[in-house]
Amino acid sequence: MTGTDVHRSVEAIWRIESAKLVGALARLLRDVGLAEELAQDALVAALEQWPVDGIPERPGAWLMATAKHRAIDHLRRRALLERKHAALGREHEAEQAALAAASFDAALDDDIGDDLLRLVFTACHPVLSREARVALTLRLLGGLSTAEIARAFLVPEATVAQRIVRAKRTLAEARVPFEVPRGPGLAARLSSVLEVVYLIFNEGYAATAGDDWMRPALCEEALRLGRILAGLAPQEPEVHGLVALMEIQASRARARTGPAGEPVLLLDQDRGRWDQLLIRRGLAALARAEALGGALGPYALQAAIAACHARARTPTETDWARIAALYDALAELAPSPVVELNRAVALAMAFGPEAGLELADALLAEPALQRYHLLPSVRGDLLARLGRHAEARAEFERAAALTRNGRERELLLARAAACAGAAQTPS
Fold this sequence. Notes:
The protein is mainly α. It has a domain at 3-110. The protein has 19 helices and 2 strands. Strands 1-2 form a two-stranded parallel sheet. One of its GO terms (biological process) is DNA-templated transcription initiation.
């Protein structure tokens, strides 16, 4: 195996093992930043030794052992410094160092799943900004480099590095405990965790900026995190709801772009290209959420909406009345202008474009949607369906001016041009 092959293998192994390393170290050291540094030290050691000695039979165990030795050395140095300050004798020093090493060994044998769950809740702590939570989650749980995160979100690498450094400093200064919250605090914290995972997925599914309609790597990373979370918190219905939503949406990935990378809208997609395995996994996750009982939460409701599309073999078979009813429930449970806009689309499909346009028009004064390109895009579509092509063209052009995604801009301008042509055609 060449040095390049070994380096690629190390990177792949790191993606799989890094979160476990950081989680185990953070539990013992109570410092996420320090835990990541020591895990990175183990990675550097692998990059130095494996090209020479070969990849170990159990690479994850090798990385864990290496990281553990570095952590023990750190604990010994810290204990030594503290004992020197307290003017303790040599015998006590050796005894405490041995105890530290022994307790570390025992603690590392604990259930690794608990460590990962703690790490998820720490990286997604509400004390951090949304951007910081996303960056830290991708770094600690995804094993992504700062450069990879920067490329994924089209921001300077220095910006991402700064967010990560500040996030770790904020967690330390706020003395955020490395634990899974209990009781009433769990729901609030879980909401933050799910929001971060879905933010990552959405940025991959419909990129907000740049020249690509999708960034599949981010979708895959969010799905991986969601599946891990579902395994760690199997009794939380909203976790399964989010996984179901992402699985079903991800099933459309191959059909969402054309040969040149251009966007293909839902109703125009070749459903034969939808991934049936992901659909089955998504429907199974939705069934698990429903089986846990109680009213469906926001993610499970959105998954139920996605399931309506997944079950329809053709666009005309879609149960739009059920989708509209599910959006009614979602609007009541988690009201927002974006939910109302989606509800307008569902109403238009179920009961005619006039019904949808009435609701969309009511959102024109909504401050949160003033720069949201999908509002004029939806209005343009509904106006075109009503034969009001000149008005529709203006809306599509406005939407094109607001979007930051190049592919989406091309699509919107093409729809505006089509409306211009239709307006000039005698009826």
